[in-house]
Amino acid sequence: MAEQEMILVVRSARRAELKGQCWLQNYASAGELIAIVTSGCIGLRPVVDDLDSRLEILSRNAPAIVDLTESHEVAVGHWLVDASTVYFYTEGDLEAAFECSARFACNFVDILRAQYSAVMLLLDDTDRDGLRRLGASLLARAERSATKDQKLRVTQSQLASETGLSRQWVNRLLKRLERKGIAELGRGHVQLRAPGRLLE
Fold first, then answer.
1. How many CB atoms lie within 10 A of CB 200?
2. Is the pLDDT of residue 9 over 60?
3. Residue-wise over 38-70: b if at least 16 C-beta within 10 A, else e?
4. Which label site among 141, 169, 178, 186 has the fewest CB atoms less than 10 Å from its CB?
5. Do 176 and 168 meet the contact criterion of CB atoms below 8 Å apart?
6. Could you read off the pLDDT of 68-121 as tens digits, one per residue?
7. What phi, psi does 88 have (nearest 5°)?
């Protein structure tokens, strides 16, 4: 979305010129849950202690639309932006902007579609790598286990340490395996139901 097109709706939003790298949430006011970044780039950076600090759940170049409540299943995450021009919107402000400019509304939807496609590709790629690591760890434990019922005594924190993934990521992947009928989660253990499918 060109800067010139934003002029049509600037009266419906609060504009901020952000310098350097900063947490976007720090600049939003009450009720401003949507931000449109028209320059620079932005990423959702998790800030929990046991999460790989190198991991950015999502990185975007401007123009970008940001839901400031969005966390992508990460326990705590903040939007980190480079030097940027940002327009902050409340729900009412956004409705007014749509009414003011049909062009703005169309661009808004187009950007959302592009972002959704990019997120799905990114999460799919990172999950494939995570599932390979987690599957290998669970299979190695199953081979060392003396039990025949495939009930592995292991915590999610231990699996995170073995695989180099965050505990939150391990939890999400285990739930994905559970939905597929490959594993079943329990307190302090993982029950393998179809170990042969772990590395599919």
1. 9
2. no
3. bbbebbbbbeeeebeeeebbbebebbbbbeeee
4. 186
5. no
6. 876 544 445 678 888 888 999 999 988 888 888 888 888 888 888 887 776 666
7. -100, 135
